[in-house]
Design brief:
The protein is mainly α. It has one domain. It has 2 helices and no strands. The radius of gyration is 39 Å and the shape is rod-shaped.
Amino acid sequence: MADTKLSVNPDIPVSGPEGNLSVPEQAKAENGAQKFWNGALKLVKGENTAKLIEDFTAEMTLVAEGLCEDQSKLRREVDKMITEKKVKTISNAIRTTFAVKWKPGSL
């Protein structure tokens, strides 16, 4: 089997048989880990996260305002229908009452 030499990334810490890393090596490892983490977050979140959040919030605000306006219109229509139904019911009750009890010439 031939010996193959692996390339070593300086940003990735390698701990040998001697144990823990020295302080400069640990700082370099932490810096590499931070770079890796920031790169991964950048891929997931994208470059314009703040702009995307702002746009999304603005769009959701418009949707919520529209829904509120629609709900208010529906509430007014329902209230109007309820009022009309009550008036019709009362009107029918009055007609029925007077039609049964009042007859022309009964006064």
